[in-house]
């Protein structure tokens, strides 16, 4: 069974992303295709949240095994899409920046019962995806200055080497 998802962002109005996954794929597979397709760093924490009709979060599918108070919890790697997604129109939130409470809105727009899919498949990618973490992109002048400082930190000043090792002669 193939699930078709439409993904949008409140931060970037021109952004529109659609992807298809098989019901046997895990939420970790879904997370990976989002991360890779949008150029996000994979080490950042993220979670999916299933919403009810009032758009309240009712279930979290986390990257980490939280195991809080022996309650019911779902882990991306162990939870298949078909385990929790049953009807077209279901809405989810994919939170990719917990510190700034930034998310992508996900809607299950179609379920095709008769077919299967081996790999996740991006069907549409339009516009600019929101940056993964606010403030992570330094301005171009700042980036150049930081790069120059990094060079000095790596190699030091040439005169310092002369003092330590003496002047070297060419052969």
TrEMBL record:
The record's InterPro entries line, in alphabetical order, gives: MM3350-like_sf, Plasmid_pRiA4b_Orf3-like
Coiled coil where? Answer: none
- The chain positions of domain Plasmid pRiA4b Orf3-like read 18-135
Which lineage?
Bacteria, Pseudomonadati, Bacteroidota, Bacteroidia, Marinilabiliales
Source domain of life is: Bacteria
**What is the protein's given name?**
PRiA4b ORF-3-like protein
Among the Pfam families in the record, one is PRiA4_ORF3
